[in-house]
């Protein structure tokens, strides 16, 4: 088990179970050095989005790393004001140009823009059929959004990336996605470090001689959740993923389960300001 350990998606594509998220990593030097250091540490999964305005730095870091492109799993996403069939195809082309890539490994609909996301997803299906994305999926979709999508979609999403951490465990979304063979991926997987002092995490950290962040990432890993903790600091990147030398017991996992408080750090998808 290592940073190259993968999970198989429903189309047969393999995704590294643990990756690096680059949300809020500044364009230019900051994101460039964050990706370079992560790759040096053994990360092989990088998650970006057009919204983050840092695709150029991600792409350049991957090129300069000297690691073969096929050895790195790259995700990007289409933002809300880029959605629609033709608009999405144009947005994807721009993302590829910024990344300096011929394809991405995973392309996601970033949020379910009402009245538009099914058309957006049709564009993703065409991109997938053209071989420009190895897999396609969604982000921030509630079960009812996925159900609406599946009525028209010809290709089942491989992933639903949602806010998920010990205080927002998304069990209903996870159960629904499991039923439809869709992997769940966690954004804000560490809860933005806002409750590392929680007694359960503190106790488990002492028990396993680990940091609270490592307990969380290990819990997600053992739960079959793809996770993309973000950090621009090499030592923190290393720390976040130093999770392969211990295992949480069933009792440990039950204790973490008890932390669930349905507490969001971001907006609920049904209450998000889509501006439409």
UniProtKB/TrEMBL annotation:
Pfam families named in the record: Aldo_ket_red
Active site (record annotation): 52
Keyword annotations: NADP, Oxidoreductase
Residues annotated for substrate binding in this entry: 110
A Gene Ontology molecular function term of the record: oxidoreductase activity, acting on the CH-OH group of donors, NAD or NADP as acceptor
Keyword NADP recorded: yes
Classification via InterPro entries: AKR (IPR020471), Aldo/ket_reductase_CS (IPR018170), NAD(P)_OxRdtase_dom_sf (IPR036812), NADP_OxRdtase_dom (IPR023210)
Annotated site (Lowers pKa of active site Tyr): 77
NADP-dependent oxidoreductase domain ranges (all copies): 27-259
Record keyword ATP-binding present: no
Family indicated by similarity: Belongs to the aldo/keto reductase family.
UniProt name for this protein: Aldo/keto reductase
